[in-house]
Specification:
The complex is a heterodimer of chains A (401) and B (85). Chain A has 401 residues and is α/β, with parallel strands linked by helices. Chain A has 17 helices and 13 strands. Chain A folds into two domains: 292 residues, Rossmann fold (3-Layer(aba) Sandwich), CATH 3.40.50.720; 94 residues, Oxidized Rhodanese, domain 1 (3-Layer(aba) Sandwich), CATH 3.40.250.10. Classes of the chains: A alpha/beta (401), B alpha+beta (85). The complex binds zinc ion.
Chain lengths: 401, 85
């Protein structure tokens, strides 16, 4: 690339000799900016680190965003606004009212619409000079490599561990760097995985925690602005990689805590023993994640069965493993011991008694049943579908939250 | 004043929420390694014992493992993966 302009003289270190420069990008022919594009991107082009050439480079770049939710919103909005020329979005969800507090890619009028339809409309309005491709699908081991093909960067805006491991594996196997971000309540984590020489997500966290151990946003809650903060950090890392500027978060995990207003970075290295990116990798293709996350099933009781048993006065002992705050929102009675306290409060329960454990949806209570089984509670069962199922099938007076 | 500074343990995300603590001080004389610190913490906070396998420890802001030695004044961060998006 030899394009030089006033204000963007080739001083030799505008573009770092980037070890992560993606093969599909640097060989592209850059197309000159049109006059409307020059006006639109003017303030960004003024930065010597970007310049006309950097802007053209963004215009020629292809980014795959997995998830059009809390992180996907700032990712898509800011990458589109910044002039990333080709954005691909993967999502299979529909806009729900409870998404809107943290997903400003979608509006109130979009409730019930596909997130991709809503996103496409918004992004087209935001920047008609770019192309947006939508894939209405879940990101799976079957379609991952195909979806990733031809992209310079993948940005992980998913909301579950299964897909995060899949994004990571597809990134390492295809050589496309993965800009990762994840959030929980008031905290976020950001890093760049799968860049040459750098670590991958599995180097940091070799295996996913079992479902239920780490609450999702739906169960743990999240401050609406948090994925905005963290997703814009993630978008910044995407732009840095595409432009080849600055020091990307390769080999560093950025931790953000909104409550204390603290940023920490922890250095991480590629693990030579990593099963995916190590010296002798054992994973050479995408794992079927349903099997990967397959758990030994726990004994279950349906809400209908529980209701019958209660009506016949043979009700089992009911254990609620939600948080105290959730008790105010809805309850069907029983003893409250939050999942996190369960292992230290087992003495409050009777090992010989028939126990039915519930939570909001049945995810945490399944984890609780596993924990109880491990401690000799042979008659513990999970209330299938949790309070939600109770509300839908037994008593609509119990609110769904 | 002790001549020995404690090991400062910092907790993040789920561990912070479930223990109700963002920082715990341990006597450096009692915990000579990350593993020993996790065992000691697990006795007081069972949730740390439950999560132990999935905790990514970092000593003085660098990636560590259970064998990493601790000394007076070290900072031990206990990080767990989060999945929200
Ligand atoms: Zn790795």
């Amino acid at each position: 690339m030899t394009c030089t302009t006033a204000g963007a003289t080739s001083d030799g270190d505008r573009f770092l000799p980037s070890p992560y420069a993606s093969p599909s990008n640097h060989s592209l022919t850059l197309l000159p900016l049109s006059d409307p594009e020059k006006r639109r991107y003017g303030r960004q082009v003024l930065l010597p680190e970007v310049g006309i050439e950097g802007q053209e480079r963004l215009q020629a770049s292809r980014v795959l965003i997995v998830g059009a939710g809390g992180l996907g919103s700032p990712l898509a909005l800011y990458l589109a606004a910044a002039g990333v020329g080709h954005i691909s979005l993967v999502d299979d969800d529909v806009v729900d009212e409870s998404n809107l507090h943290r997903q400003p890619l979608h509006g109130t009028a979009d409730v019930g619409r596909s997130k991709l339809d809503s996103a496409l409309e918004r992004l087209k309005d935001l920047n008609p000079h770019i192309s947006v491709t939508t894939h209405a699908a879940r990101f799976t081991s079957e379609n991952a490599m195909g979806l990733l093909q031809g992209h310079d960067v993948i940005a992980d805006g998913t909301d579950n561990f299964q897909t995060r491991y899949l994004v990571n594996d597809a990134s390492v196997l295809s050589g496309v760097p993965n800009v990762h971000a994840s959030v929980f309540r008031f905290e976020g984590q950001v890093s760049v995985f799968g860049a040459p020489g750098g670590p991958c997500y599995r180097c940091l966290y070799p295996e996913p925690p079992p479902p239920g151990l780490v609450p999702s946003c739906a169960e743990g809650g999240v401050l609406g602005v948090l994925p905005g903060t963290v997703g814009t950090l993630q978008a910044t890392e995407v732009l840095k990689l595409l432009l080849g500027i600055g020091t990307p978060l390769i080999g560093r995990l950025l931790l953000y805590d909104a409550l204390s207003a603290n940023f920490d970075t922890v250095s991480i290295q590629r693990d030579p023993g990593c099963p995916l990116c190590g010296d002798q990798p054992s994973i050479d293709k995408l794992i079927d994640y349903d099997a990967f996350c397959g758990l030994e099933a726990v004994p279950e009781m349906t809400v209908v069965e529980l209701n019958d048993r209660q009506a016949r006065d043979t009700a089992p002992y009911l254990l609620d493993v939600r948080e105290p705050e959730e008790l105010q929102l809805a309850s069907i009675g029983g003893t409250l011991i939050p999942l996190g306290e369960l292992s230290s409060r087992l003495h409050e329960l009777n090992r010989d008694e028939e126990l039915v454990v519930y939570c909001r949806t049945g995810v945490r209570s399944a984890q609780a049943v596993r924990l109880l089984q491990d401690h000799g509670f042979g008659r513990a069962q999970n209330l299938k579908g949790g309070l939600r199922a109770w509300s839908l099938e037994i008593d609509p007076e119990i609110p769904i939250y | 004043m002790s001549a020995s500074e404690p090991v400062r343990v910092r907790l993040f995300s789920v561990l912070k929420e479930r223990t109700g603590q963002s920082e715990i001080l341990l006597d450096a004389g009692d915990v000579d390694s990350v593993g020993a610190a996790l065992s000691a913490l697990g006795r007081t906070y069972p949730v740390i014992a439950d999560y132990r396998r999935w905790i990514r420890p970092a000593v003085n802001r660098a990636y560590a493992d259970e064998d990493t030695l601790l000394k007076s004044g070290d900072e031990l961060a206990l990080i767990t993966p989060v999945s929200g998006g």
